[in-house]
Amino acid sequence: MKRVGWKTLLLPGALAALFGAAAGLLSGRWAEFHPAWTFLAGALLSGCVLLAVFLAGVCRPLVRLGEAVRRVLEGDLSARARVPGFPAGAQLRELTRDFNEVARRLEEDASREWDVLPVFFHELKAPLATIGGYAQLLEKNLHPEQNREFAQIIRSEVEEMAGLADSLLLLSRLDAGRPEQPPETVDIAEQVRRAFTAREPLWREKELTLALSLGDAKARGYGPLLAHVWGNLVDNAVKYSPAGGTIEASLGEREGRVRFVIRNGGAPILPADLPRVFEPFYRAGNGGGESGHGVGLALARRIVALHGGEITVESGETEGTAFTVTL
Known about the structure:
- By secondary structure, this protein is an alpha+beta fold.
- The protein folds into 3 domains: 6-88; 115-175, Signal transduction histidine kinase, dimerisation/phosphotransfer (DHp) domain (Helix Hairpins, Orthogonal Bundle); 184-326, Heat Shock Protein 90, CATH 3.30.565.
- The chain contains 9 helices and 7 strands; from the N terminus they run H-H-H-H-H-E-H-H-E-E-H-E-E-H-E-E.
- A hairpin with a 3-residue loop joins strand 6 (310-316) and strand 7 (320-326).
- Helix 3 (35-73) runs parallel beside helix 4 (90-139).
């Protein structure tokens, strides 16, 4: 059975009753002996016409809004409702605009999610192919030294895939607004020092010079997440610095705000790439063949935003590339 809404039952019936009453007044004997009734009936008919026009102007936008809501619930995230004009009230117009904005954000989030997934699976293809190839070689029982080398390559590729999966899991949790622990007072200076110490073999191998100016700085936040930010920025500085180059880093706190700047003297990021360096899976053109899955800076930006801060990047031929974090 077809469902009938309240407006389908009540509004036409009410208008019909009013029209009937007005017609009865005009056609009955009341019109002959009481001219006032004729005037009243005419006014009633005019009111009915105006009421019908007004109700149509209010109900049609409600029907359109309801239809758009139904389409979104059924999975059509492109559905929008036309914002009504007069005689619809301001509240109905505002409600329609709010609905359209929510639908737009849902559509953008869904689009971003499905844009990321194909790239994610594409990123897995190369290490999986490498693992498969070296596994086949191991099956041939080659020299023990070769077997150890192949096993190390396989382990490295597996660790790379695990790191990518962990990063994407953390990214999804941040997008959902679900930190895993309550905020605490974090010693930012200590975290930054640990980030450089943990990567000492890497920057010593490239004979890099560190020019560090790390003052005391503390912030309220999520310690493990913030440590990920400093680690990623130091990783990038080491990775993109030329052998024998210098990494500069400064940290300080002023007027309740923490400011961290790290700069490397590697090839500058191309101007066309600068606006996109924080996008997941995006690799700038200055990579020079360096490895990485392109999620670290996207994670860093999410984490900094979660703490009410900002991360920016500047790059040029003479000054190198600098990332600035403000919390």
